[in-house]
Amino acid sequence: MTLNIRNKIKLVSNYFFLFYLFLTKYPAIIVKSVIYHQKDKNKGFENPLPMNVKYILPLLAIVSLMLLAQCNDEVVTRDYPRVTATNISNISDSGAVFRAEITDMGNAPITEHGFVWSTEKTQYLSSGERIFLGPCNSSSDFEAEIKTTLKENSTYYVCAFVVSGEYTVYGKTESFVSLGSKAPRIKGFSPESAGWGDTITIYGENFSYVTYHNQVLFNDVAADYTILATDTIVKALLPPLFTDPKGAVSVSICGNVTTFKSDSVIFLEPEFYDYTPKSARWSDTLYLIGRYLKYFGASTSNGVFLDNTKLYVRDYDTAQYIIVSDDITAETSKFSIKLNGYSFTSPDNFTLLPPVIDSISPDEATWGATLYIYGRFNKNLSKNTIYFNSIKATISYCDSKIIKVTVPSTLVDSTSVISLLSGPFTVESPEKFHLAKPKVKYVTPSSGYSGTKVKIGGNFFRSGSTTVKIGSVNAVITSMNDSVIYCYVPVLDNNSHDIAVKVGVATSNSDVSFDVKNPVINSFSPTSVTFNDVITVTGDNFVSAMSWYLGTSLVSATYVNSNTVKLTVPPNMSYSAENITGTYTLNGYKSTTSSSESLELKDFIVTSISPMIGKGGDVLNLTGENLNTLYVSVMFGDTEATVSNFTATGMSVVVPALYNGIYDISVEIGGRTKVYGSKFIVDGPWSKLADLPFVSKYGWIMDFGDEVLYMTRSSSETSESLYSFNSSTLNFEKQVGTYNSGLKLAYSCILGDKAYIVGQKTTGGMALMMFDSSDRSLSYISDYPGNSSYLPLIMADDSVVYVGGGDYIPAPYTNSYLKLWKYSPATQKWTSLTDLPVRSHASNRVSLDGKVYCLGTNNAVYEYNPTENSWSEKSEGIWWGGDAGGKSNFIIDGNWYVGFGSYNGIVSSSMTNFFARWDPVQNIWEEIKNVPVSARIRPVSFSVGDKGFVGGCQYYGLTDFWMYDPSKE
Fold it and tell me: Is 774 exposed, middle or buried (0-12, 13-18, 19+ CB in 10 A)?
């Protein structure tokens, strides 16, 4: 029929309406409609299959446009049958009744109708339970009583269907809760006897169309597979675990079991006749001859065995292929079978055939190359061992037909037999393997110095097995691969040297030799020189990077070309006859050339030294010839002097710090020493006296002016001895008697004919004691009222004693007390005074002309005013190189002399022999230089008349004793 424009528009609208239904109602309408179906492969019916949405819209658009464009196209309409929703009734433990009505027969015959149900909401004839009621010729009601396939308390969905032509039409799906159903009915089965895997066909009624819903049992053994099912036939395979002589046939559906009582299946047992072949190699296939020898996978104990080794069965169900295991090691083995409780043994043993090597490729190669061995092998790599003669090789890959091995790096034989050890067999290759010899093709460069890096090109080199010899010396290889070697030329004489490359036991010689051209000295001039002279050296192959030596002295060249070098004689050259040596170092290799003649240094001469009398610090003038302008040592006895203003004919010599005496002057240049003919007389302020007769320990000086006494520990740790200074002998003499102060680290001051001493008590705390010079008595006065401190200062004016300051105890004494006290001998009372202005120690105080001074750790001098009880700064002081304590301390001609000591008065590396003088009238500090006395702390120090005395040292056990005469400064 012909469509007009209105009909076309209506048709297009209908298509878009259907598309809308697809999107909004899918799957309820689409699945239940007749728009599109797919054929059911089992029954020849059609089931609905949704189309991919992304293809529908373009398809509808194209169809609509085609309809609009073709006004004269004819459309054939199809009227599909219609079926109502299913009515479910008579629900009981015996099943249920389904009813429906065909309301429209459509325009094609109905070839089948019935019901389909399952626990899924969407129904398909191909997957759900179903009942077929046959063709239908007219619209009418139809029903079916369902007696099986319904499980108790399960929800089922059911719909009616009709089949018309190629299409299946479904009714509306309804649901119900099942109360259960009955078991199926078995009418018979065939065949009557069967073995494992045979198909048993069971006939009856009310079986399930869903194959897996029908569980078939033989006695109590379930069939592994149900291969086909309809409502009247079920086909299953006899399971491999069934071994009873007979088996009752049962079918279970939804837990309802029916057993066929009339007959049972007769079990046909497996039978083993033979196997073939009787001999084979690893991985070969064996075949079983017998009946029902299959299903080896049903139990882990099943298997085919050669002795106790289980073979691989490629197809467990049919046992078609039995693979000879790689683990077989015996040449003959017993053949046996274990199968689901049955055991079989062959009377014929199995023979394992040896592996075969057919060929190798390549038959010539170098170390590390891969060699392919072809033949028949055990494919398990660990079961194979390959040897090149007796050298074991590394296998990188193995299967039943090929083995890949690496040519061993330790192989030395030029020709090898390849042998394979596998299981009980050892076989050899029919052809031999040849180790490739190294080949040298080129060498570059072919000349140069020792240490030159040479490139050697060729073939069949091997890292770790290759050596290079240039001449008779092995060269160091820096890097290499199989075709290039880099090495250094060793230290060789100037000549042409052969090059040989050895790999393993094979050696290849280069056609090109290496010409060594190291530096060579031919001559030099002049041969007799003095310092700073220029020497000209001639020779060959000189380079600017060479190092030059005159004997052991390294010198720099002032001029270099390939044939000439100019050198300057250095100041540190020795007087022994020396050769000139040139060394060129290239890549760590030293090429050394030496002159055949010796170089001689002209002897130096000391002409004069003047003046020959003086003291430390004086400057002398030394003249001579061929003197060293840099390295000269001038000694006064054992003390080295400072030398300056060097020339080849003279220099200035500063007299070192020396005490009075006569000294040899020796001059050393270049390892040669000369003693000057005259001796030098020191006439200075310092004289060394005889050693002290005691070791100063916890002692203190008492300077009464006309008499100087020193109290120090004797051999006992609890008593002291008294010594008196003899101004005639300039030393101390021990006095009769012993004392027991119980003090340590004590200092004293003088008030009239009495000395007052303050120090730490050995029992703790501090005490003030008094020594009476008139009767040589030592008495306790009182405990110190201030804090116990380390090295407090003590001083006196004309009537009272002042005590204070010092550091906190214990070490390292980094904090100080500033408190100052006054003790009056007249009233025997202590009075607290104004604090010290700065930190100060015992040795840093003095009583001078009735005034009291202290030296602070800031190196300034402070004066105490007893009338105003105040301190005032007198001088900025002098730099002592740090906070110094434990100093020497005495007065000469109204000047205060202070020196030596260390940081905080502690024995340490900070000890010094710094010595200085303060003039209170001019308020000037002056450093006294050139002190020959060594550094020390807490020395014995005092003055007698116009002389000062210093000696000894607390803790160090020094006993040296010195006199200082300031008039000789």
Answer: exposed
